[in-house]
Design brief:
The protein has 439 residues and is an alpha/beta fold. Helix content is 24%, strand content 21%. Bound molecules: (2S,3R,4S,5S)-2-methyl-5-(phenylethynyl)pyrrolidine-3,4-diol.
Amino acid sequence: NITLKYGAERIGKRTDQPMQDWRNYGLGQFIHWGVYAIPGGHWNGKYYAGAAEWIRSWEGMPNEAYDNLYKEFNPKNFNANAWAKQAKELGAKYVIITTKHHDGFCLWPSEYTDYTIANTPYKKDIIGALVEAYDKQGIDVYLYFSIIDWNHFGYKSKLVTDKDRTDYEVFKEFTRNQLIELLTRYPETKGLWFDGTWDAAWKEQASYVYDLDKELREMIPGLIIGSRFRPDDYGNRHFDANGNMMGDYEQGWERKMPNTIEEVHGNDWDCVMTIPENQWGYHSDWRGHVKTSNELIEMLVKAVALDGNFVLNFGPDGLGTIRKEETKLAKQVGEWMKVNSTAIYNCGYLDWEKQDWGYFTTNRITQEKYMVVFNQPISGVYTVKTKKGVSIEKAYLLDNPGLELSIEKTYNNEFLIQYNPENHPEEPFVMVIETNKDQ
Ligand SMILES: C[C@@H]1N[C@@H](C#Cc2ccccc2)[C@H](O)[C@@H]1O
């Protein structure tokens, strides 16, 4: 074991109520919005193939041009209540909203910079409106904050000269001031989702970030911060030099997912996912694969089945409209959730052997067990291998409890559930299984 001053603050999961609530969300919504939504992945008639929120880094986008976009930011279609209502219908239990992305543009009227919504034609506090609207819908609010800030003179990716270091000290105080400002203005905030912490300069700040982390947590008891904030004594992120996770949940699953429970190392985690292959901010021309509702539902179920949360990203356009493709998917996933969220909310991993037909989930409070089916066996036979001494006594469809399914027990404690409907369901469906024990 390596002695660390700034390593993991705790071994094992947080057990307090705010973290239990976080663990039981299942489904969240990510909102990426900012001035990058104005160009929407194009400039000067040229198509930008990268992630739209990174367009300022593209040689086809002059920094000067980008840095003046805020002067035309006037989202006349923006309606915080409509966004929150759509998220409610999607079935999201929490939302993560970009307060400031890497470009440094603040969606709240920060007093620490002029590069904010207050100095746009729109003027009004976007973050305040969204916090209020989502709160009203009973959706918990988390704030995304980028440490990278291309707009601040003191931001450096690495510290080479003495001037870099003195400038960076100013940047660190600016960062601290903005974070305190956000938690002061929006005390309803349940957590901070940090990003842009991969720079060498930040990875040298273990002591500073350790103290800042502590200060922020003291401001809002129960505040939840993931593994993407603190570096350890040696500049390690997410996991310290002893392999222990720093922060309250792992934030390593961006546009990817674990496949086995072993890969999550007993930690809480979230998967943040885009609908196209790699666009967080608004891009008017999605190319490559755009995920269908059934693909997204399978990712959601897989996350819950492996004790994680699934956070689906939406990138509103420059006028504040959530595009039709995202609206359609929110509706489709929401309709599925209306029927099947019993197998999602308050649910997590069931340590039975994974089967080809889909995923097991279990309600952490009631111990009720679910089989979420994505791959119907041609045979109509669903194999379930339980733990020793655990028998399946009943099986039925979540959306038709009256239709009990036949169960056959084999000699080596496998249970074969028979279900062969005439009309094959077009969507994933859930079977409920009742056992003789609560294991
Ligand atoms: C949550 C997501 N993290 C950000 C990123 C990134 C990134 C940057 C470089 C290499 C790989 C990933 C994206 O812009 C989005 O905000």
